[in-house]
Amino acid sequence: MYRQPLLSLLYQHTPSDFNEKAMTEATIAFVEQHPDCFERSLLIGHVTGSAWIVSPDRQQTLLIHHRKLDRWLQPGGHADGDPDVAAVALKEAQEETGLQSVRLLSPAIFDVDVHTIPARNAVPEHLHYDIRFLFEADPEDVFGASDERTNIQWFSLEKATSIADSESILRLLRKKI
Q: What is the count of structural domains for the chain?
């Protein structure tokens, strides 16, 4: 069963708070219920993969200003049928940042978040069951071009806390790395 590797990771994940625990349980139920959970054609929602990228000294994090959502977020995106969500997160991180030094620090899930994506054009409002992994990259590397973002920047953890406009990002910042 191609969903089993993700389900195993979700069962092994230790949420950091009650809210993340509830989202992890909701994600498990969603993945178990929907064989097509990795497809964006599942209009009620789908699994996505994200990369929480930190500097080698763990004092900075990399955020992109998302073009469509007009917010500072971690890189990430749709699985488009790929059940290897860590590979999805890596691909999205490389595409959205242009950094080649991005590397996965652990195969374990770092965070789980379920959030609403507003309706846009023919796509109705839906949920992203976002599986987040911890990555590292060199802050000295040069960013590549991407049409997914309007800006990209390394932030000190303190500065990232001050610009974060969601509990989702704040929870990532509170986690010990």
A: 1
Q: Containing H/E element for 32?
A: helix 18-33
Residue carrying structure tokens 């993969």: 49
Give Cα 125 to chain centroid, integer Å: 19
Q: Are 84 and 96 in contact (CB under 8 A)?
A: no
Taking residue 163's Cβ as centre, other Cβ atoms within 10 Å add up to: 13
Q: 103: domain CATH number?
A: 3.90.79.10
Q: Measuring CA to CA, how many Å separate 20 from each of 14, 23, 30, 119, 155?
A: 9, 5, 15, 24, 24
Contact criterion met (CB below 8 Å) for 168 and 71: no
Structure confidence by residue, pLDDT tens digits, 42-93: 999 999 999 999 999 999 999 998 877 788 899 999 999 999 999 999 999 9
Identify the residue whose tokens are 């960013």: 143
- Beta bridge pairs of residue 64: 73, 152
